[in-house]
Amino acid sequence: MRRHVPLILLVAPLLVAGCTTPEPAAPAAGSSTPTTTPSPTAPAVDYTAWQAGRSTPVADRVYPARGTDALDVLHYDLALDWAPTTRTLTGTATLRIRPTKDAPNLVLDFMPYQVDGVTLDDATVTGTVAKEKLTVTAPVVADKPVTLVVKYHGKPKTTPMPSHRKDVENLGLTVTKEGGLWTTQEPFGAFTWYPANDQPSDEALYDIKVTVPTGWTAIASGTPAGQSGTTFTYRSADPVATYLTTLAVGKYEKLTAKGPRGIPLTYWYRKGADDKLLPYLKKSPQYLAWLEKKFGPYPFPSGGVVVVDSASGMETQQMITMGRKIENTKARRDRWGGDLLHEYAHQWFGDSVTPTTWTDLWLNEGWAQYAQDLYTKETLHLSDASLDRYLRDADAAARKKLGPPGKPNPKNFAEGNVYLCPEAMLHEIHRKLGDKAFFALARAWVQDQRNTQQDRASFIAFVNKQTGRDFTKLINTWLDSKTTPKAVTVA
Which residue range or ranges hold the Peptidase M1 membrane alanine aminopeptidase domain (predicted)? Predict the structure, then answer.
């Protein structure tokens, strides 16, 4: 997704008071070898190594055309090669998949690249790409894992973003004028560079290996796992939703730092073009220290930022994707830094604890936006009354324009209501609990639910259990009301 929604935040109001078309596929858009039945003598694979990538996929009601609940990808192994001169991506994707249902085939989201070969458990099968779906013709059995290998090549193409935001850009793998790459893909778009179950409830482990020409650098989500020649490798030992993966290729400069408790941080930027952003990148340890104080330990073994040719930012896991075109304004003179802190907050809210479906996007954005505004309030020494007034006014305007946050319109993905309205709700819970109990609740939520997918019902149950009070009516009212709620009694 594109981030950050163009909010005025607190500064102005509170200071007063305190591509190219992909190559055409072959007629069948798949391998030329006929379908064969997987060999019963194929060597057994021990899938326990990827059990941390096990999920319970749920069909998404907001974007039902993306993803499926019929399979659970445990692990993606992506071996990619990028040729800037021809704008060609060549890939071999190895997927370890646990089918959740008996089915006559496997279906994944995938851009229509030229498919060069498909195997299932080492047996050659037919893979057909049509309408951005890869259908692998071979029967699978529920809970009997299989290994799918897809070889492909072609010219990347993006997909439209279902939103009216001012910073909207197409989703997926984007080719720059210089022949580089970058991507953001919320609510979908990972399928523009690898076959994927492109929905939030199916998280998986990742190994990403990218080969580029001499002088170029490849950056991906996860922990850096070494470089051999011009091949860069990244690994995610914590499960990742497809929308939280990233890939960037360019002529980058590298800067390293240490975050709280020695967390290794890496910043990738373009010399000259991004020099003015270095002060913000270098504040990353400060941002993370503040977030750890509020929400507990940073949930991953490494972090960092890659700067790309975007007008927004995205909380891609362990390697945040930040747009160099995000502009500071007179009213928001620290917008780039504020947005970066917002994306770091998402490493807790959205990345480590992920929504089960896009109906609960508010669960990501409300927390991250509240963290951003609390940071602004503290650093600018703004008053509680100013924050109260700002949030109620902003909530009223967002609901009037876009409706309640708990019932998002598929055509208005990630617009202001799913940021501001749940933020106002969290502020109301904060007011009722006080600082100590509220931040104990926040820390427990992200630390106890680490590497899981959650929804409204589980959030309500957790809040009620953690606080010993019944917040059900308050939360449901704030998520579903067409107007800003008045006082809601909590038992």
Answer: 282-478
Q: Which residue has the tokens 């482990």?
A: 205
Check pLDDT > 50 for residue 4.
no
> Which residues on neighbouring strands pair with residue 209, listed in sequence order?
79, 233
Q: What is the pLDDT of residue 24?
A: 32
Continuous segment of H or E residues that includes residue 377 = helix 362-380
Judged against a pLDDT cut of 90, whether residue 130 lies above it is answered with yes
- Least confident stretch, 24-33, 128-137, 461-470: 24-33
CA distance 475 to 461: 11
Residue tagged 């890659």 (tokens) = 306
If you count them, how many residues does the chain have? Answer: 491
What is the reported pTM? 0.92
- Rg of the chain on CA atoms, in Å: 22
Question: How many C-beta atoms surround the C-beta of residue 46 within 10 A?
Answer: 7
One-letter amino acid for residue 293 of the chain: K
Beta-sheet strands, E only, within 358-478: 452-454
Both ends of the chain: CA-CA distance in Å? 38
Q: What are the beta bridge partners of residue 79?
A: 92, 209
Q: In Å, what is the CA distance from 330 to each residue of 12, 177, 210, 276, 322?
A: 9, 30, 40, 17, 20
State the pLDDT confidence band at 168, using cuts at 50, 70 and 90.
confident
What ranges do the domains of the chain cover? Answer: 357-480
pLDDT higher than threshold 90 for residue 262: yes
Query: How many other C-beta atoms lie within 10 A of the C-beta of residue 464?
Result: 16
